[in-house]
Amino acid sequence: MITKEKINEIVKGYDSKKIKIATLCSHCALQLFHGARAEGIKTIGICTPERKKVYDSFSQAAPDEYLLVDDPKEAFAGGVDEELLKKNAILVPHGSLVEYSGNALMEIKVPIVGNRNSLLWERDRQKMFEWMKEAKLQLPKIIKPEEIDRPCIVKFPGAKGGRGYMAVNSYEEFERKVKDREGVMVQEYLAGIRIYPHYFYSPISKEGYRASEGSVELMGVDRRYESNVDEIYRPLSAGMSIQPSFTVVGNEPIVLRESLLGEILEIGKNVVEAAERMFGGIPGPFCIETVCDENLQFYAFEISSRIVAGTNLYPRGSPYSVYAYKEEMSMGRRIAREIKLAAKEKKLHKIVY
Ligand code: AMP
Predict the structure, then answer these.
(1) Which pairing describes strands 209-211 and 214-228: parallel, antiparallel, or unpaired?
(2) Binning pLDDT at 50, 70 and 90, where does residue 158 land?
(3) What global pTM score does this model have?
(4) Which of 117, 184, 240, 244 has a CA 20 to 30 Å removed from the CA of 333?
(5) Distance of alpha carbon 100 from alpha carbon 74, whole angstroms
(6) Which CATH superfamily is domain 4-137+191-350 in?
């Protein structure tokens, strides 16, 4: 495992005027490259040869240079990080990068925006719940399968984007439907509207909502579109008997009642401060997956301590970032700006690990 001290040493050795932003060409890479370009930072795309033409087809968001790899899953084990180090690169992790790098994530020799410890906490559902509890968030009950006494959702380990989750109402139904029980988590099914706020925590800025030594900014909000649950009324209306599934297909924007913003900002602040107490903080982008019930109470069921794909809705800024920035501020651009600022003030060690 590469230590935080080693990463601090590496960024100290970087030429602050020549820093480049690197990421894997997937997930929200277009937004990241586009945002970096707006801030005048050069970019590196880690990409397969077949994908390169896809990125090249977007003239305003293609990376300045590519590191071609045959298999993104092998990229980091295969030494891409050595190349990146020579190029003064800082890596921005997104969902695909975190998934593909797997356990190699802790070994990557390049500075990563954020705190890679937090990615370990979000990977383990039990730990994530501890974190959310420490942040005093309202949570769905976690229920032992034999004690299922209400509608529940069954989550499998490592499931990405809700794939394979199922709804069950009783232990009998759980036994019938769930064959492999290793590492499954049964949660109370939350009824309400899903709200996924995108936050940016900066330990070096005082411009947003004060949190810890810096501030948390609300950059946007989305709602996911999941198949088939989000259009389940269609097959139901056609008389089909159908079970809900939760596979993420896309995202749609949502704007909240303004009176809810105070609560949303406070939730972000509490998550930042809990992370600081538990494992050294979460500089950079993160998202809390919540459901808001009919009493306007928020329940959180997941944290992503990295940029989420829902931010792709707002490459020119969101209905929230527009009130905080004169420029069109996407999450990708916000990350680039933080890197620029931190480099200038010699505070890169505060925002990477
Ligand atoms: P996750 O993998 O935790 O991001 O969940 C994927 C999707 O499953 C969410 O976007 C929700 O639609 C649904 N979901 C997850 N947890 C719950 C819950 N406790 N109650 C209701 N729906 C949930």
Answers:
(1) antiparallel
(2) confident
(3) 0.96
(4) 117
(5) 8
(6) ATP-grasp fold, B domain (3.30.470.20)
